[in-house]
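We close this part of the discussion by returning to an individual protein. The sequence in question and its structure tokens are set out directly beneath this paragraph:
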Amino acid sequence: MAIDVLILNTAAVDLRRTDFAFADRLAGQGGLAKCRTEDMPDYSQQQLKAWIDEGSATAGGPGNTAPLIALAGLKVAVGVNLGRGQYGGLDAQGRYFYDVMVSHGIDMSATHVHPALPTGTTFIHSSPGAERGGIAYFPNANNDFDFDVFKPAVKRLEPRIVYYMYSGLSGRADANGGRDLAEFVRWCRDRGAVTIADSHTLTADPHRLIAEGKAVAEYKLLEPLLGELDIFFTSSDEAKLIENTLAGSRDWSGADERKSNTQFLDFITQRFWRDDGRTRLFGVTVHDGAYAKHRHPAGEIGGPAKVLSDFLSGKVVDLVGAGDSFRAGLIAYIAAHLDAFRHGTIDFSQAVQTGNRFASLFVTAPLNDRYGPIAEYARTLRDRGEREQMPTTKGAQMMAKKSTQSTWQDKVSNHAQLGGIETSILDNGLGKGTRIAWVNTGAGLRYKVVIDRALDIVDAFFNQHSLVWLSHAGVTAPRPDANRGIEWLWSFGGGLLTTCGLSHAGAPDDDESGQRGLHGRISNIPAEVESVVQPDLRRRKLDMSITAVVREARVFGPTLELRRTISSTLGEATIRIRDVVTNLDNTPTPHMLLYHCNYGWPLADDGTQIVWKGTCQSRGMDMDNAIFNDKHDYRTCQKPSEGHRRGSEACGFIDVTPDKDGICTIGLHNAKLGLAVVTKYKKKQLPCMANWQHWGPGEYVTGLEPATNFPIGQSAARKQKKLIHLAPGKSRTYEMEISLLTQERDIKSFLKTAGQ
């Protein structure tokens, strides 16, 4: 009975009252304290029940996360210790916590009733003044959390994500210097679960401890844990305390927010991330967003970078649970895109942005309706229909679908009714015998992947409109021998993506290192398919992907391997491409890569805008100089030109300006169709971009071509000392995303961001 998320430990009921002044004495004014069970105020169960009934209670710990994730349409279970008592076998606090979870569809079958200790309880002094009152937390039954008690639940529930709350709050679970928790996390991971845990050390004055540089014993428990976790987020203050504890005291007085948090993430990831083929995501939450750093399975690092919250609105009612609700949104997004997370192709910034969204809704909600805004948000998405996007959250249609499962549940027998991947073999013409895969996203976008040509993409349609230019030949069978002169043009089909490389991109080349034909060999090499992943509606998995390996190999070298994954999500008009290029040879090998993306009518039409921000220079030939100069409008597609008959063409070399996160955004906008095609990629991976313009009658095309180098060929790149050499066994990762926009607000945002 596999579930999406299992949340463990730290069941608590938070009680807020103005007459809890004793919390100030225990925790200090505005402070937090972890207290002993024997020091808990001797309130009767009847009194606690009365306060719960009058609305003074909220469910803490998993209560700040589990219902929010469930409202995103995911299957959630909670495994916790609750106290025994007279209310259906539970004490007043345990009964309240249990009932709140069940009312939101949470699986509580992993509940353990503790025979002696009460349910965890927090007393919060709701101070009538501006100063925040004390928070006195009594772990109680949580303090006796036993991993062996909950392992059978993990085996039975088969969770895809295991979230442990929190390191530092349970005496038994934190025993053995934190190694018991680390071993449990590793055990969960070995069973196939993605793991996340967080830390929570209650201290009355964190800023004083930071200034004094004192170590905190509870943070030492993270030492064995951090290397095992896939995901870890902490607060900005806790980040400083953690670094002081694990790395030694340092002076934070001169460090601004960005410097402090990026330094912490660099420290913690360099120390605890291993080269073990796992996706990792660590971060620090701040008042207006979060800093994040991620690692792809192949080893490439992204960040640290700040994801500024797009959702800062409304008056904050209570910040308690802000971090928990952030993690709820983060986990919900990752659970909805779990295959992409495992492969490292997930949109990490949008995962963090979804966390920002959930936190904003949670901390601005009335205390008696903590989940209401999330529920209302889900209802709004349902009312707008399955294909409505989350406001300002790119690619989050998935989350809308997760909350609108009931609109298609029990009405669809086969995912192919909505979309998916269909493989076949062409049986006619120049492409006879060529393997292909049609991908239907169910959102109007359909595209053809040619398996026998390096998993390139040829045909692509959005609704009734073709997006691409196809050559007269179209799809042809691969010609691995076409690597002399311009033989490549005989098999160039055009299309949405033709890969150029892997060791040469540009005009034919001949030097002391050998002869190389136009744009290299890779697009003429068949791929070896590793997997085809279909959407699985019953398991709420909407991602689809095809992964294959293409080897540009020769005895005695060079030998380069391209491992490509092309993925989409049911209901999203987006294509994601992730390439990992590895040198399998035993000597360094030259490497060049260019994505030849070819757009045609009706998308490319006279008047269509070619959108990019940056600087441009002519390639240097006569036609290039005539087109790419300040007196000519080379940012607009032209009418068919007599001057472009036969081989006449023009090419500009563009240095695209990235955004603050290092992302380049380019594309085409056809105002007559109300349609834009947007391509995004990382400047660090693909620093160059070429714009190819060929307005020949009957052969009308423009290309946008992100690349490692401008298409000048291996020889020229070597002379300019810009040629990449991959060392033996080393890899480089490239990611690109192509999306379709039709909403006016989204197109305006694209033009504002990427336009000149």
Remarks:
- The chain has a mean pLDDT of 86.
- Residues 257-272 form the longest helix (16 residues).
- The radius of gyration is 28 Å.
